């Protein structure tokens, strides 16, 4: 599996896995949204791991329509938990990476919180599994997202908020790829993560 790991400038306060958008749509770990999300997590003091799903870049095997990609997420979590055994894991995903990542992360006890970016709730209509979520989750979205309307996301968020700590931010005049809003995305993720992990010792 091809991956990039980056440590924060200061004290390590946790680790994070960031999952990229759909491989068949050109998604890679170098995607600008994935990069900025990882930067926000670095800003909050987390070690970040970005990786390419199977069949992307130098990662072996072929795209598997989600099944194999869930295995990839598990493999990446194995790496983080083995190399940073005493650190909490935050899992973030953009678009397809959100759909695959949140499904794995919600049931994996090593993951303590989730971040869903550009949640394609109109493309993948089976996000109702998150209604059983028992971990904090943060949704970052654009009001003109082509794959998930604000209305559809709002319905999902309202249901999840009944069972767990749920926050969301929606940027105005913003599409699925957060053009002209990448710094806002980075700052929103950093701020939420810092509030989740608390003040430094």
List the helices and strands and how they pair.
Blueprint: E1 3-6, E2 14-19, H1 32-43, E3 46-51, H2 67-83, E4 89-94, H3 96-107, E5 111-117, E6 137-142, H4 150-160, E7 166-171, H5 182-197
Parallel strand pairs: 2-3, 2-4, 4-5, 5-6, 6-7
Antiparallel strand pairs: 1-3
Would you give an account of this structure?
The structure is a single chain. The protein is of the alpha/beta class and 201 residues long. It has a single domain (3-195), classed as Rossmann fold (3-Layer(aba) Sandwich). It is built from five helices and seven strands; from the N terminus they run E-E-H-E-H-E-H-E-E-H-E-H. It has helices spanning 32-43, 67-83, 96-107, 150-160, 182-197; strands at residues 3-6, 14-19, 46-51, 89-94, 111-117, 137-142, 166-171. A seven-stranded mixed beta sheet has the order 1-3-2-4-5-6-7, sandwiched between helices. Helix 4 (150-160) links the parallel strand 6 (137-142) and strand 7 (166-171). Helix 1 (32-43) packs parallel to helix 5. The radius of gyration is 15 Å and the shape is globular. The termini are far apart.
Full CATH superfamily name = Alpha/Beta hydrolase fold, catalytic domain
What share of residues is helical?
25-40%
Radius of gyration of CA atoms, rounded to a whole number? 15 Å
Low-confidence stretches: none
Average per-residue pLDDT, rounded, comes to 95
Q: What is the second-level CATH architecture?
A: 3-Layer(aba) Sandwich
The arrangement of helices and strands along the chain is EEHEHEHEEHEH
Proportion of residues in β-strands: 15-25%
CATH fold field value: Rossmann fold
Regarding CATH, which class? Alpha Beta
Query: Given the C-alpha coordinates, what overall shape results?
Result: globular
Class per helix and strand makeup: alpha/beta
Largest sheet: 7 strands, mixed
- Number of helical segments with 4 or more residues: 5
């Amino acid at each position: 599996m091809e991956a990039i790991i980056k440590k924060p400038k200061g004290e390590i306060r946790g680790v994070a896995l960031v999952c990229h958008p759909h491989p068949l749509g050109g998604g890679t770990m170098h995607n600008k949204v994935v990069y900025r999300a990882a930067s926000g997590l670095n800003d909050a003091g987390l070690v970040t791991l970005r990786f390419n799903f199977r069949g992307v870049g130098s990662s072996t095997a072929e795209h598997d329509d989600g099944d194999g990609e869930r295995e990839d997420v598990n493999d990446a979590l194995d790496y983080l938990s083995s190399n940073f055994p005493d650190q909490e894991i935050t899992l973030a995903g953009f678009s397809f990476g959100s759909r695959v990542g949140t499904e794995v992360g919600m049931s994996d006890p090593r993951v303590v919180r989730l971040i869903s970016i550009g949640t394609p709730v109109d493309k993948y209509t089976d996000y109702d599994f998150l209604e059983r979520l028992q971990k904090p989750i943060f949704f970052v979205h654009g009001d003109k997202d082509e794959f998930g309307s604000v209305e559809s996301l709002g319905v999902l968020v309202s249901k999840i908020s009944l069972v767990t700590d749920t926050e969301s931010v929606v940027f105005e005049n913003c599409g699925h790829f957060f053009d002209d809003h990448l710094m806002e995305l980075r700052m929103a993720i950093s701020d939420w993560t810092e509030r989740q992990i608390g003040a430094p010792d």
